[in-house]
Protein 1
Amino acid sequence: MKYNHLINNLREISSQIKNKLAKNEDRNILLCCIEKAINHAKNGDIERAFSYINKLYTKFIILQSKHSPCCHYYLFLEKLKNKLLKCYADQPVEVLEEELMELINQRIQILTVLSPPAGRPPNITGILREVKDGIIKLALQNEHEDSDTERMGVYRLSEIIEFIPATEEDSECGDGDETEVPFNDELEKLIDEEIKLFISESTTERISITGVLQEVKDGYVKIKVEQENEIDIEPEVRVYQTDYIVGFSKTDSGGTPGMVTLEVAVQWPEGVEHPEEVDVILTREEVDVVVETIDGIAIFITEPSGDVILRGEPVPGFEIPIKKIRLTGNQKYVTETLEYQAAVIPVEGVILNQEELELIVGSSEELSATIQPPNASNQNISWESSDENIATVSDDGLVTAVSTGNATIIVTTEDGQETDSAEVEVVSIEQILEPTPITALRGEVIVLPEIVRAELSNDNLVDLAVTWSFADEELEGVFEVPLEGDITAYTLTGNVEQTEQSITLTINVEDSQAVPVTAVSLDINQASLLVAETLILTETIHPGGATTKEVIWSSSNEEAATVTDGIVKAVNPGIAVITVTTIDGGYEAYCQVSVSSIPELELIYATQEVYDSPEEVTINVENLVEFLELDDDEEILYYIKVEQSGSNRSLSSGDDTVIINNDSIEFNLYEVTEFETTQNYSKEYFVYMSTDPDYPKADEQTLMTNFKVGSPVPTVSKENVRVNLEILGGPLEGQPQDITFILAREIDKEVIDITWEDYIDPEAPEGEIEFIDEVKLIGSTDSEGNVIWEEPRESLKLGGYFLLEVTPEGYIDNLNLVNPESEDGELLKEVHLTRGGSIERDIINTYIGE
């Protein structure tokens, strides 16, 4: 593939993000940009691929601006950003060069990949003077205003992420200055959220302030700060100038409920060479969790109590550090260290990965040796062959067959002279069996055999790969018999791997025409799967009497789902489109697949994420009743209490009780506990239920759920609802514009059956489509598939909505599939707007025919 280097780089970045970053909106945006960039690169649309790479790079910078340059998150993003820079080696500059040529002698602003301190993107403004040989020259403001000499800035086209014509406002900032990304826009999205501000009024001192953001206005921010250790004193409102804010981050409101964050720092002796990063293994009840360190620190999210064992991976020349610790359940954040100690560790043995090899003359295979123990100080080994006339072996263990016969490959350790060996039998190909001739019709597409069978000198048979050619032109696995002509037989030549031999394949042609394929369809067009589940798809070739029925299966996202011969296997949470393509004609059919994790059953849960008042809070216990399997007259008394995240102070008496029996469905929490509320709307309230008034920490003894109580008028901006549409197949493929979407309040109907038509106003004039009042947002897609929302009919309030599409005729959308990010099996169409939150949906339309 032309852009393999680019695609592999992006896949590696994607893998690191999935392994290191917690699931949240920022992570989703990063992975979405990468996936779209990879897909466009695969399709050869490198310009669109780099439009998403540019977005990815900019997002890295914005995320870094919210964190301290010393924190692990910032440094991890810096590593990813540096890796992303390698992708720019593949960036085509021809189009960029043409666009810039049209702006000669005009003022422009460029964003480059060069990062100044604090990770701010350098937006450089100047007058474009020259574009030549991959270089541009900008006339920047001269430091001496009375000088007639222009100060020139020279930049490589390959280092320019994007550019825009500069406005007058840009020029007032000073040509050539690096203009910082303003914090105001990002901070305004966090009103009423608990955040941490990093403030510096000098070059040497910096402070951090944690509190609830109240207001961002006129160059100032207001933040409400709780008085330390003073529960009954009103929070203090402080005001800071935005000019002094050097960074900010959204705080974790209490961490993962019911879990503890365990940070393990790896230490090494000074002056001793060692690897930069290692794996740390946490073992609990014989189950291992492996996390690679970032800057020497591994972070685990684990159960809050119990015994765990921590150990580092084996490193040659060091004792393996092992530590057993006991988590008490009283802490939310625990720090530990693992210290590697240098030591002279003798070699005790060596093991080869294979004991026997069979090689064809001229072929090679690599052996690998593992020294025991794996952390032995001296890892040096040597290789030798008992007969180099039969087989040779390199210093890296690569065995090459020279002539027929038998030889022994021996590996020896430098320390202790420990050995292991592998027996090699070298054979030759005695005969390649000619493939059976194929009979075909005129116009028929023939799928050629991928392997041929060969007979070896030891009488064994082996399958060897073969590539075919006709008239000196290499074939791509198929041969199409010409429709016209009077040739009755075609002879193809096959080159067999591991040999210099060739074979022939005869295709005999009958004097009648093949029935061509005109279409293909699938029995299933949509499916929601749990991880590890399988789905069998069956294709139907049209017409039924078509001559060539072979097809090719593929998945748009093999990290989410793979497919082999129509059998789909769910691998990881995500969205994939399974495509079946006919060999004859290249016709396609699609199945949209959503893969989600196995949902965790919540025995109790709040019926809403956010309530307008405490009196509305309702706790559902249906799952608990089903789990308990009570007798008809049996009742169980549960104690119940309410706390707010970040505080151990109970907001209720703690002695309140509720009785659960077979008729229990839900209860009003306020009526049972009359719990207190606070003015901190960003924090969650936690409800604990237990049959034990001491509320033991074990999950099976104490149940927990959470909710928020909102401010009187909580609203969400339409910009926080981001939707993108992609269309596959049919007449609209690649043309996602002018498709209508709506965001509507929930109605009393089965979720899976709800469509946009349920919201049509029956009293609208004939021939016109108007929506009822439950529709709060209406928008349509642009040429890139992004939904542009009209002004909302009224302020968007917190709560549940449905996202629906006026799907084009002949297509199906994926809104009825399970959301891979959902923990309880909700569909993609189900949207929950929360304070300061946002939602992002990638909608796919696949063609199923008129």
Protein 2
Amino acid sequence: MKKRILLSVLSLMLVPSMVLGFSWTRDSAVEIQQNLASNYEPSGVIWNPDYNALFVVSDEGDLTKINIDGSNETAWRIGGDLEGLTIDQSDPRYIYIAKERPFALIKFDPINGTIVKNVSLVGVVPAVSSVNQGIEAVAYVPNGDHTYSHSPNGGLFYLGVQEGGRIHVVDVNFGSGNAVLVDSFVPVSGRGDLAGLHYNYETKTIFILYDSSNRLREIKTDKTFVEEYVVPGNAQEGVTFLPGCPSGATSIFIAEDYPSKVLRYDGFPLSCPVLDTDGDGVTDDMDMCEGYDDAADLDQDGTPDGCDTIDNRDDDNDGIVNEYDMCPGHDDAIDTDADNIPDGCDTVDNRDSDNDGVINEYDICVGYDDNLDVDSDGIPDGCDDTDDRFCAANIGELGKTSVIQEDNAQWHTVNLQNTYIDPVVIAQMSTYNGSNPAHIRLRNVGNTSFEFQIEEWDYLDQWHTTEEITYIVMERGSYEVNGVMVDVGSATLKHNFKTVTYGAQFENVPVVLSQAQTYNGGQAVVTRQKNIDTNSFSVKLKEEEGNDGSHANEEVGYIAIEGGSHMLGNTFFNAIVTPDNVTHSWQTVNFSSMNNPFFFSMMQSHDGGDSAGMRHRNVGSNSVEIMIEEEQSRDSEMSHTTESVGYLVLDGVGTITTELMCSLN
């Protein structure tokens, strides 16, 4: 047991300027040892947050747990000269007790009341000259807080020795029971009688208690001096603190072994570190918004954004701050349909601009009454291009006329039975009364009439005897009539082949008839075709060979019709392509029996490049003779190689009528 020295009571302590006003006198102490035995000699004390209690050890071998007011005592008999105790703040379940004789460190479990491990420090902590001048205090400093190498055991134990006032730093492995001396140092040269140690986790400093000099010295773990305080009382043996940061004031407990006392002094000043936990340049004690940057205040209302529950900006300048803005980025005051949802965020237009009882958002036909749907197809009449009820429609007509051609200035007018919007005319001679090579030329194709002439080639005299002319007129467009696809159209072109794409898609290659509808160039001209397929065909204008071959732009009309024997509305027809065997020689072509056949043909190939057209004769009820007729403007020969010829023969004069979806326009 250490020698007891009776010291006079000091009424004041020396304190740093930052804590002036703190009064630390024996009169200000609160005694809390009242439940300890009268002969109990406290030799160490530690506050344990896990138990919310103080642990006091005596040099007679007792360990006691008490509340900070001294109540609720629990005691354990351990035995031996116990001189100090500490905890590992990261795992405060255990109490670590320093034993003076022989040197040892005990790990104690208060929950089970058992010693977990007793590690001998003999030979680790240097021996002292007197048995009563050995280990008097212990403090635990975790890795990261001390300046030594990282310990695999989590931290280091600082053991205070009374003789010479030396502190030994020891690394202890309670698993293996091994201990290693890391360092030894003397905090104050020439000052012995070291009686207590405490490591404060908040200030990261070590407090060293000297009982002979009545001093409490505070140092950093790198051994540099922080402060020193005069301690009131006698025979001080242990020191500990309650938590006190960030307020900077706390309760300090001093254990005295003669007479036996545990004293609490309130208001002790701690040098709490100035922290800026959130790194915003404002210390924690002044931080307006912990965890966030105090400088970030977008709405400039004095409350940092991280703690601001209201965004007082008005980014869209509509007079409503962001926090209460119904439609950010848009003017909340604009609400065209008056549904309390600003237009900028309104997905439904609740107005009914056309007063049909259907709001604009769901209006099928804006500007018209959605309820009017005469054909019940779900499309209001105002936006319906077709009446899905079927109506009788005149899509074309067939006609015949016989004329004599006096000269090339003479034009013949055909007045049509029906009125058309945009008609296409195909007209051909069905007789062969005059042997001069000739064909039909059109002009002024209009809504109710067209003009034609029998056009001989330019090298001839342009007089031609009487011939019968048959013609078919069809309204431009694409039709599917009785399952038959028909496409009627036109293209502007001249003497070079031009590809024309149909307005409809054919499943099979159609029969194509084409003819110039205009008279922009005065030279005699026919059309030649090639590359006919289901999507398109190529066509050009062809003058006589004696000319230069160049011709002005003409509008060329065409009729493309699906092959086979079908009804085109009320009119029966055949559309057939011959084998590639038609030449300049007359050849009989057969077709279905008809009462009044109208026959049209056109070369579908371009095997021979000479200027040529089709001529017909002897049109009967089920056959006709056809040939390819060349001209002799450059030479006298009129032979033509084989071509495939498409022909269309229809039964009956007059209007071609069918049923189509009715137009609502």
Protein 3
Amino acid sequence: MEKLYYKEPRLSLSATGEFFVRVIAYSAYAGTTIAAFFFLLSENASERSLGLLLLLFIIDRAMHVRHGERTIYELKKGDKNVARSCSPQSYHILNYSLRKALVLKKNFNLILLLELLGRRDIQEALRRLGVKHNDVQKKVETLIESTVLIEGAGKEYYLKNIESLVVVAFQNAIDTGEQYTHPRNLFVALSISGDSAIAKVFDLFNLEEETVQEAIIFGKWGRMFFGIRRIPAVLGGFIHNPTHLRKRVINRSWTARPTPVLDQFSTDLTELANQEKVGFLIGHNEEMNVLIHTLSRPGKPNAILIGEPGAGKTSMIAHLAYRLIKDDVPSPLYDKRLVSLDIPALISNSTPEVLVGRLKEITDEVILAGNIVLHIPELHDLFRTANNKGGINAIDVILPIIKNQAIPVVGESFPREFKTYIEARTDFLDQFESITINEISEKEAIRFLVYQTLLLEKQYKLFITFRAIEQSVKIAHRYFHNKLLPGSALDLLKQAIIAAKDERRKILEAEDITKIAETQTRIPIEKAGDDEAQKLLNLEEMIHKKLVNQSHAVSSVSRSLREYRSGLSRKGGPIATFLFVGPTGVGKTELAKILTKIQFGSQDSMIRFDMSEYQDKQSISRFIGSSNGESSGALTDAVSKTPYSLILLDEFEKAHPDILNLFLQVFDDGRLTDNLGRVVGFENTIIIATSNAHSEFIKTEIEKGRKSGEIADDLKKKLTDYFKPELINRFSDIIVFRTLTQDETKQVAKLLIGEVSGTLRESQGIDLVVDDSALSEIARIGYSPVFGARPLRQTISENIRSVLAEKILRREITRGVVVIMSFVDSSFVWKIDGDGV
């Protein structure tokens, strides 16, 4: 590819020379205008014709007064001098800034920035970013005054500076779909120039390179004269370019034929593109290039786009139609019509014979016409017709089109349906190039929302800041996984707009997006408020109200949550991953439950798996979905639905090694790909795996007087009997739970009885008092050297809950009484105080 360069002869002129050139040019236009009117008034027909010709020339120049010599489209295919694509406004600003820099011997970029800040489109972009252009102007003026003189800087020095800037501006103009290089593109070029003085200004006002590049689009479509906006009605209007558009039903060689039956059961996308109704596309450049290359190749010119709903498959097809009418495709696709088959209309209300007849007629028409690119949305539906229409498979009927090397066919399908219906038909699939369409990036989604915002503002009469757009994309990508970008971000933005309209607000800020997202997800997205901060600071104390001992475990999980809510947790992984190791009944699962209720709001936010149920190799399909796409994964589905949650993996060591290997990626990257290729994020989860492995070793070491923290290093070495070292090293912490003593078991019993007492008071209005003798006996009965405190709940159920239930049903105790439980002479004794209702 030829190197881009900037060569503008007018900048090489002296001030005097430039003045004379302008005088001559203006004089020539004035003389031509006078001559045109003079000849038009002449009685001589030839002179009147000449006058009309001159008038048309003047009108043409007036219509193109804001245009450069060449459009960017023309320049991309020919001359590489980017000066030719600069609009007159760009030239004048560059020229003025150059002359001023030469006189002042100051930083050219700062002088250029100061001039650009006077333009409305730049001011509009800054307004979207919440920055006052007057403040930026004052700062730039101060910097220009304070910077040292650039000694020995001549015109060549500044021209090199200009060349590097304009080349970058030209690239930005291509990226944003401009026809010419405008001053706003120069502003973007300054933001990525690397000039330390410019960087200082942009950093001061928090103007990042990428945000400037996207916000400047608002300047392009901003206000014109007297507040009139030039916003199109639909997204397709944003790519309208009156040049190089072709509208043909018949190809240039006039060999195409009409297609009446096809027209009845299809939509001509090239016609819609001509009407500016479709064709807008952000992202998917690589996939688009593969698609066009496939459709234009001599053999098997067929492609199938595979992606989830909202991935952009249909938008790519519409953009292909736009590229076709612009002739922005390889020559084999010139003059083609992109026609989308209407499958529901084709199949509905038709007998098997009628369906076959329609498909055969369409097949004959497409082959005879020779200028059709056939689009089949939801291609898998044609495979289903065998079941729905008495065994006839529509795919076999249209197979002649697909195998015809002259008829490009592009289909769409979803990953699950592709695996179920299409992948098995190798004879059919062999005719296609499979192209996977993934979710667009956050940057691309932001740009998409910028254009959508222009339409939404027009509809709702609301000013939407760029920060609100940015926040919509970031939050949607992180927390809303049921829908892909940009759809998830657009939904969130629309909900915030509706809420703002209901509250009669005129401006939508980033904070409004956050509030809506928090309401929907119940995830704390904003910075921790005073109440939450106090809760986090006192988390250990709150947990210990419901959990006895295990201080090291409580401190570790509390610390990880404080780091997460302070924004200091590790990026790219879960909030934290813990391995709780210890005997049964010592509080491993209980701590997970308590933590879920305190921090995640409800125990419903716990995703729990008994890993002993996943011991064979086949069980991996239950975890992430079956390979044929028929069943989804329990883990991936659960996290997609509840992204802010605690995941408890009980008896982790019993899982099959292949399942344990899945967690290598989860613990490290916070991501897991399911059977359909969807990536599920674990960034907002705490993962706790429990294990009873080497419980005897832990018990022995504790009895020797060693603390839990001291045992962890030795235990890590022993755990390699069950887990790979790389998995062990990926845990945030391995926490040893020690066996509970008799006194600690008594404390646990007190907590559990407190739960019963609270339930009794709330539901029946009865107070329960269990004295120390009864509490000690309950703790003794409920303690097991093998199962720890686990039997306590059953003991309390048998000796307290059941007894109370019978007394309530017999009306022995009623609302308002106090029930006292004691242990006397080897049996529990019940005493009732007070008069019941």
Protein 4
Amino acid sequence: MKMKDTLKYFALAALIAGAAACADDDELETTDAGPVMTVVSYSENAIMGDSVRFEVTLEDPIALSTLKGELYYDEDKVSDVEIRTKTNGTYKGAVAVPLLQNTPDGVATFRLLGQNIRFGLTTKELEVAVARPNPEYLTFVTEEKEYRAERTEDYTYELTAELPQAVSGYFETPALGEAGTVLTFGWDSAEKALAFGATDPIPYTSLGAGEWTITVNLKTFETAPFLVPVKLGDTYMEAVGDGYALVADMTNGSTYAVEGIDGIGEYTADADYFTLDGTTLKLAAPTGSYRTVVDTKNKFIYAEVWKDGAAASLQSDGTGAVWIIGEKVGKPTLDNEVGWNTEKALCMVPVETGKFRITLVAGTSVGTDAVNFKFYGGAHSWNDEFKHDRLTTTSDLVGIGTGEVDETGEKHDDGNLYIRPGKALEEGKTYLFTIDVTAGSDKAVLTVEEQSDAPADDDPYLVEIERVDETTLAATLNLVQGKKIRLAGIDLAGWWIDDNFLASEADGTLAVKVVDGKYRLTAKTDKKQVFVQPVDADGSDPTVGDDGTGGIWLMGWGVGAPSQDYQFGFTEGAAYCMAEISPAVYRLTGKAGPEKGSAAGDYFRYDYISLKYFHQNGWGGEMKSPTLASGTEKLLKDSGNLELADGVQLEEGATYQLTIDLTAGKDQGVVSFVKL
């Protein structure tokens, strides 16, 4: 290593000239001689990111001023330090060795400059071999724990471990050099880059939780991964094949924002499971456990029923799922045909226990003049196959193959669906294929129904009713007075229907008795009951307007539905919304029955009534001194509540009709109560 002593002489001509120009000023004293400098020691080798440490003795008959240390990479000064010196003696210091991106190992120039108070300067130039840090490992420090990143090649490190979807932390080296210096590498949030000397956490993200790898290079400062995370609701999705997936418990009617996928609003959502509004999914399927898949290749969002961490298979109690495999069926279009690939099997949505449905559009997701698919109880497998000995249908559109020559004059494989002769699925029409195993999985029944966009003049409108929980189905829809509806997949024989809103027809349809509007239908499958309630445009409970239209709510004792076992009482938020049979005219028609042991349809207690109507579902605006229609006073009196007249009992088993007419305004009610 070479050492060069240089005495620098500063004439300082400008300063001297300035002093001479002012005769009254003190003369500026300067010298050409700098202090005698002896380098006791210095770091001949240094690690970038550490320091060059030095010890220097200065002696000078003239008072000392400063000792400076400067470090140069080529001709560029990259670091310096200044020490104040007043007396002769030995001084210690250190000058930083910067760790810069891509700077190679090499020889740096270390310059020492000693100066006295008369500007005499002594300079010594030394060489320092500097090298980038290249330890055997790094430690990745997070709030929860520390991980070891191994060196895979010079300056390059990898950390492979079971990690969450997103993990943040910084790197530190082991103790380096004789001084045992620990270097850190964190995050520069402004530059969004790795930063030497920082401990701000680096926000790594992967496509899913599990085993994944973090890499960092201490020469190029490159580090990864920073994959754009995809979230469904508050949870990161896992990267799978051509998209992302998440298994989670989901709630019917709840919304889940999809984040991290460009153009998600242009995707198609499987209508059996979801509706998609912009970037928000709403679960249309029953509450349950689902594996939601965002298929980026086909721009399609669909779901599968899951149980105990795996795709659900059909169970003996009618729970689980039924799967479709075969030809001429695929979602979102036939371009993604299932074929005989079990991994692509379509999962039918459970609409109620023992009933499973898939919605298909002719010409788009199902063939029009030919189909060839079948049903399986085993998830993504050939297990639990539905053949003709356990699956029947009365559909006039599709038949079920027996393996023998059938009505088409051809053989269709056992259990495979086919289009009946002379029939076709109409292009663009939507069809509901429903498998019913309520009588047992060995007595399954297939129904195929066309779903109309709107009811024809005399045709019933098919209503898809969706599962909310194990015993509750629900649908919100617009009803048209006088039209008929049919609840898809539900045999209503033996059910109680709120007959003030809907009239049960012999053909299983329901005739709408109330004014046109938006309503919520709720079916309780365990009790075989269907309730109906009007709702506002946003799905909330209606209130009565000043003109008397909208909705009024009954509370009280001696009145209830489906029977006196369900009296309305005076519980806030649990009132009964009356059927509006014409604008501002509301009606409740039912039989009189006993308090205990009453039958469905016994809406009035024969020996006691105390009720009131309200302008909303709860306390607030309420009935105010209504007028009793002629003859009503023989049965009811207004005592603040509407009550049976003194000494009056209703005829048990007879039908009575309560009408509240608000056509004159919500505070000008006319009450009629008559025996029919």
